[in-house]
From TrEMBL:
<feature type="transmembrane region" description="Helical">
    <location>
        <begin position="31"/>
        <end position="53"/>
    </location>
</feature>
<keyword id="KW-0812">Transmembrane</keyword>
<keyword id="KW-1003">Cell membrane</keyword>
<feature type="transmembrane region" description="Helical">
    <location>
        <begin position="142"/>
        <end position="167"/>
    </location>
</feature>
<dbReference type="InterPro" id="IPR052017">
    <property type="entry name" value="TSUP"/>
</dbReference>
<protein>
    <recommendedName>
        <fullName>Probable membrane transporter protein</fullName>
    </recommendedName>
</protein>
<keyword id="KW-0472">Membrane</keyword>
<dbReference type="Pfam" id="PF01925">
    <property type="entry name" value="TauE"/>
</dbReference>
<keyword id="KW-1133">Transmembrane helix</keyword>
<feature type="transmembrane region" description="Helical">
    <location>
        <begin position="187"/>
        <end position="216"/>
    </location>
</feature>
<comment type="similarity">
    <text>Belongs to the 4-toluene sulfonate uptake permease (TSUP) (TC 2.A.102) family.</text>
</comment>
<keyword id="KW-0813">Transport</keyword>
<feature type="transmembrane region" description="Helical">
    <location>
        <begin position="74"/>
        <end position="96"/>
    </location>
</feature>
<feature type="transmembrane region" description="Helical">
    <location>
        <begin position="236"/>
        <end position="254"/>
    </location>
</feature>
<dbReference type="InterPro" id="IPR002781">
    <property type="entry name" value="TM_pro_TauE-like"/>
</dbReference>
<feature type="transmembrane region" description="Helical">
    <location>
        <begin position="102"/>
        <end position="121"/>
    </location>
</feature>
Amino acid sequence: MTIWEAVAVFAAGLGAGTINTIVGSGTLITFPVLLAFGLPPVTANVSNTLGLVPGSLSGAFGYRRELVGQRGRVLRFGLIALIGGLGGAILLLALPSKAFDTIVPALIAVALVLVIAQPRLAAALRARRERNGTTAARDGGWALLLGLLLASAYGGYFGAAQGVLYLSLMGLLLSEDLQRVNALKNVLAAIVNGVAAVFFLFVAHFDWTAVALIAVGSTLGGQLGAKVGRRLPPTALRAVIVLVGLLAIAQLLLK
């Protein structure tokens, strides 16, 4: 790797760490860069996952204030993320890369619709519960747990726009401020990346130079993303989520 290639990979890691903390989809920055510099797809994906772990942890730490009072959720959802992330990592080595090519853009599109419609859908759900005299399922119920399991499996497999899926699911099924939901998203992403990384260390090939450069860049980006993301009002944050999600769909369809 030349010095300019190293600079490009570091910059990609910085950008990925920043956007991952605010929304997600940082993989769409780093993965194409690694491919452009000659890494095979699976090696690039594995190296990217390993490199983004420190950035995920950095972003979660940056949002630590919004995690206050959510310890129970972190433990429950974290266990689901761990199981799903490990399953996705296993699938990466067992299935052809085209297995998700058709469904992923559609999945992200549905998630974006949920993000946009979340305030009205949440209000409609509350009104329906009031009419029926029922209460909301604790922490989203089984529907949210199943959704998080599938989103985590996808995250362990590839991870592009994983954060968008998390935000759409938790934003709809949890009665929480979007920034507190974003804090949860960062923790779950860190767990998925972490368990997938540990698995890959023992069974997959990766490029240590790329891993190190992305790790340093994404760690700095995680702190930058936390500072920017926490200042965004809910409407602006939704706009960023939708913009990133649309870019992710476009890139996945045109690759």
